[in-house]
Amino acid sequence: MNPRKVNLILLGPPGAGKGTQAQYLQSKLGVAKLSTGDMLRAAVASGSALGKQVQDIMAKGQLVSDDIMVNLLRERIRQADCQNGFILDGFPRTVAQAEALDVMLSEEKKHIDCVIELKVDDKQLVERIAGRFSCAKCGAGYHDNFKQPKKSGVCDECGATEFSRREDDKAETVSKRLDAYHRQTAPLLPYYQKKGVLKGVDGMADIGDVTRQIDGIIGG
Ligand code: AP5
Ligand code: MG
Ligand code: ZN
To answer: Whole-angstrom Cα distance, residue 20 to residue 41?
Structure first.
């Protein structure tokens, strides 16, 4: 697989490390990173019509409707920066979204090269989410125990000193997000297995180790 032009999906439960690995892959491969959670949070922060529509749903830990998500993705994936490859983080999340993605890509004569499943057990996910924070300016992700900025209180990526925690990272919402993953998103595993593009990595390993496993798969 040509690592410079690759269409990847990162699949896994909340807190599995999708965003962390997508951030790494984006800078390594120079391809576009499409994180639907980040796109929706930006819409909420901007107060747009879309943001108003999805705010409550996200705060409850539920999935936004397939219609909204498919339209959002369709527009985004047509943009110029996706022509040399993309990493999907957080999409698709239902079988209906996966089917819509297949149609969208075949219309543009593209396909998914690889779906990487990050396997992490639920207990570890809760700990990861509880310690997560990110740069308020550029969104780079960190963790109280597993990934502190190199210089305390200063973002590695952009030098900003303000950080924030996610609204939906409260313990009671996290269990709803995990539920939604097991019920609505896990059926994507057999869906992509049948297509022969699913590869699993041990997401319980430390961050660098997970990165090395992914590099091994995409030939980096
Ligand atoms: P989204 O933002 O996609 O959230 P999520 O899937 O719940 O995943 P997270 O972002 O919580 O986890 P992650 O896998 O990115 O982990 P991270 O790398 O941060 O979606 C949010 C909401 O938006 C949804 O609930 C839904 O409402 C809506 N939505 C989005 N897309 C949708 C769609 N397609 N359809 C419908 N609704 C949609 O890692 C977690 C922490 O652990 C970090 O602090 C990190 O530093 C640390 N860490 C990462 N890897 C490791 C490791 N290997 N070891 C130790 N620590 C690690
Ligand atoms: Mg994420
Ligand atoms: Zn930053």
So the answer is: 17
Please tell me the number of the ligand nearest to residue 118's CA.
Answer: 1
> What one-character-per-residue DSSP string does 56-106 give?
HHHHTTPPPPHHHHHHHHHHHHTSGGGTT-EEEES---SHHHHHHHHHHHH
- What would the mean pLDDT of 55-59 be, rounded to a whole number? 97
Cα 162 to Cα 135: distance, rounded to the nearest angstrom:
6
Number of CB atoms found within 10 A of residue 40's CB? 22
63 in ligand 1 pocket by Cβ < 6 Å?
Answer: yes
Closest CA to 77 of 28, 48, 111, 118: 111
Q: How far apart, in whole angstroms, are the C-alpha atoms of residue 61 and residue 170?
A: 10
Residue nearest to atom 18 of ligand 1 (CA): 17
Question: Is 210 buried (19+), middle (13-18) or exposed (0-12) by CB count in 10 A?
Answer: buried
Confidence (pTM) = 0.94
Q: How far is the CA of 103 from the centre of ligand 2 (A)?
A: 25
Neighbours of 179 (CB within 10 A): 12
Q: Please name the residues in contact with 108: beta carbons below 8 A apart, sequence gap of 6 or more.
A: 77, 78
Q: At what angle do helices 36-46 and 49-59 cross, to 10 degrees?
A: 120
Q: How far apart are CA 207 and CA 112, in angstroms?
A: 24
The span from the CA of 55 to the CA of 100, in Å, is 24
Q: Which pLDDT band, with edges at 50, 70 and 90, does 32 fall under? A: very high
Spatial CA neighbour of 110 closest among 98, 118, 101:
101
